[in-house]
Amino acid sequence: MLIKTHNNGFIHPTSSEITPRTVYEGRRELMKLMATGAASAAMASWAGREALAQTVAPGKLPALKGAKSAVDGAMAMEKLTEYKDASTYNNFYEFGTDKADPAQNAHTLKTKPWTVEIEGLVNKPGKFNLEDLIKLSAQEERIYRLRCVEGWSMVIPWVGYSLSELIKKVEPQSGAKFVEFVTLADPKTMPFVGSRVLDWPYVEGLRMDEAMHPLTLLTFGMYGEVLPNQNGAPVRLVVPWKYGFKSAKSIVKIRFTDKEPKTAWNKAAANEYGFYSNVNPNVDHPRWSQSDERRIGDGGGLFAKRRKTLMFNGYEAQVGKLYAGLDLKRNF
Ligand SMILES: Nc1nc2c(c(=O)[nH]1)N[C@H]1C(S)=C(S)[C@@H](COP(=O)(O)O)O[C@H]1N2
Ligand SMILES: [Mo]
């Protein structure tokens, strides 16, 4: 089942249109170049690209059971980010602060066995092992924009189910106003957890109504496969109307509280990273504008054409009402 609210209401291609993406893209690229008479050069560069794709292409990881991938370029309006970009240009500071570090270093992350602990103000606290957590609700593919606070964005087909499904099962008590997400901090497998870049573990938080919003995705996969480690395996959050850092990776604990959680980035620099962190082109980061963004894969390097950043990352119709009456400049 696919919801129709994702990607700003664009409808999904049907499953019959599905072609394995490397095949599709390689073929399309080759045909384009052949048409311009550059076939032999194209063959050579295509071979190079294929070699790269060997290490970073879907098909390397187990397919996520029951999840459909619809990565064939038929998406209206917005082109999906290439898998190789989505899986090699990452922020996952536990594995280094360079964009290429997580893809290089995260192979040490041990995702099996994995448990997620539910605690705090709920009637049914306890531990879920990953397999049970995955089975808790039907998986859906959702194509979401992810907009990093640094000013770049991607469009990724995530796979998971609404976090609200899990929340309903554990029965929050009336005093539960916030949800805190605690992620793994294992110095043995995460080389930068020993560093002082952030106060580990990486912690994020949402207000209860944000956590319950159907767009908030408890995510197990992308491009039809289990998450690569660098993207937050085996389970992460994707909160598409907020800056990327709210989407905590490799979650080990979900805690229901009556107080606003102290989040890692807010602790690091409270004047730069507020609790809400809603994507908002009208509220600048203290050190840079948030009015536009660079879509990864658009090319052009320094001269890349930038896109206008949309209010709530384009999800205003769905989430705007959560913030009615809230001063978004003050509550950034
Ligand atoms: N545990 C953890 N989660 C994290 C981060 C991190 O450093 N550690 N980085 C965040 C940031 S800043 C972004 S933009 C997204 C990036 O997700 P992606 O690599 O899948 O695009 O993950 C977020 N989740
Ligand atoms: Mo980010």
Explained architecture:
The chain is α+β, with helices and mostly antiparallel strands and 332 residues long. It has a single domain, classed as Oxidoreductase, molybdopterin-binding domain (Sulfite Oxidase, Chain A, domain 2), CATH 3.90.420.10. It is built from 9 helices and 12 strands. It has helices at residues 21-35, 39-55, 83-86, 101-105, 130-135, 163-170, 208-212, 264-268, 316-319; strands spanning 115-120, 126-129, 140-147, 152-162, 178-183, 203-207, 217-222, 225-226, 236-238, 251-257, 292-295, 307-308. Strands 3, 4, 7, 8, 9, 11 and 12 form a 7-stranded mixed beta sheet that branches. Helix 1 (21-35) runs antiparallel to helix 2 (39-55). The longest helix has 17 residues, at 39-55. Molybdenum atom is lined by residues 91, 148-150, 243-245.
Q: What's the order of the H and E elements?
A: HHHHEEHEEHEEHEEEEHEEH
* Ligands bound to this protein structure: ligand MTE, molybdenum atom
**Quaternary structure classification:** single chain
SS element count, helices: 9
Q: Indicate the percent of residues in helices.
A: 10-25%
Low-confidence stretches: 1-34, 41-54, 71-76
